[in-house]
Amino acid sequence: MRGPRHRPAHRGSPAAVEISTEIGALLERNERPQALERFREAIRGGAPLPYPDDHLKTLRAANDTDSARALARDWAPQGAWTPGQIAHAAKVLFDLGDREQALHRLAEACARHPRARGLALTRARLLMLDGQRDAAIAAYEAIPDIPAKRAREVSLILRALREERVTALGFELSVPARVVPPGMLLGLIRGRYETAERHGATNGLRPGDRVLELGTGIGIMALSLFRAQPGLDILCVEANPVLEPVIRENFALNGCPAKLEIGVAGLKDGQTAFHVEANFHASGTAPRATQATRIEQREIDTNRLIDGFRPTVLVLDIEGSEIALLPRLTLDGVRRIVVEFHPAINTAQEISQTVASLLAQGFLLDLRQGKGQVLVFDRGDERTETMHERPAP
């Protein structure tokens, strides 16, 4: 019979448990310098402390990245490092923003353990996430005897890096490096991209539904909706002009007839400022990085679109602009709304007020759908059903 896959290092070590508990208590009291010094003292003294995942979680929750980085750098096992310990420690350092140190540790470790496939896979993945495309290709190609459970993923990653094309989520997709960031590419390949949004929008579709999507990205939502109900009328609005050729190519590759309009979903027809980021997810009407490129973009009156298209389902992922837009839309004919809120951009009060405005219009929050900051609102009253008995324009 197989034993547990992971056995914490402090099991059977009361001293290590006691020290870890002491450090945790100091962190809970926000006595971080004392906690770091106690941790370093224990490591120097050879105490068999487990990797400080819980302590790092506490520091990250407090937005103290510097202390978390220091803790991650200082930890060392009681004996020699194992490849698994090196890989885990490097991934944590990478996630904490210490990418150079993480990759340096991995390069040295891979030279010492040339047959350690887990180390090699971790290094290749982090090189990809760091945007080092050619180095990532070389690292993946050099992995000895890729495990069967990882072989398909590696094959898809290599094709995406070489050809800028990938088969993911059941679709053939164009994924140009200038548009699709490595983290998104990995999420697509692993089937974890916009899962809550896709499920919330596709579950419960009815014959005759008409979907208006605000914030199309590279077209994954429209493709998912079309697959769930072929013949569905879908109108997409995307503000970022850089994405237009990618969206149109992805629609063509998968035979999706969704209509596309390029412009900022707003409350009037005209022009407005839009800030294009290297990572398209960060692009929006307000700049989020100093390297953002400001352009003048077409603004589209969303209420005019609603009046002409008469959607029954509304999907929004517009990077914080949902707060200004949703409460001002005419939603009488809409029975379902799937919206991703952005707490990193908008305050809790702003999000709460937006939710309250939807509840006041007769929508109910469906907690069986959505997840995290993706919320689904639904209503099936007679008003929405009779309004959509009219033939579509």
TrEMBL record:
Residues 230-353 form the Methyltransferase FkbM domain. InterPro entries: FkbM_mtfrase (IPR006342), SAM-dependent_MTases_sf (IPR029063), TPR-like_helical_dom_sf (IPR011990). It comes from the Bacteria. Gene3D superfamilies: Tetratricopeptide repeat domain (1.25.40.10), Vaccinia Virus protein VP39 (3.40.50.150). Transmembrane segments: none annotated. SUPFAM superfamilies: S-adenosyl-L-methionine-dependent methyltransferases, TPR-like. NCBIfam families: fkbM_fam. This is Methyltransferase FkbM domain-containing protein. It comes from Sinisalibacter lacisalsi.
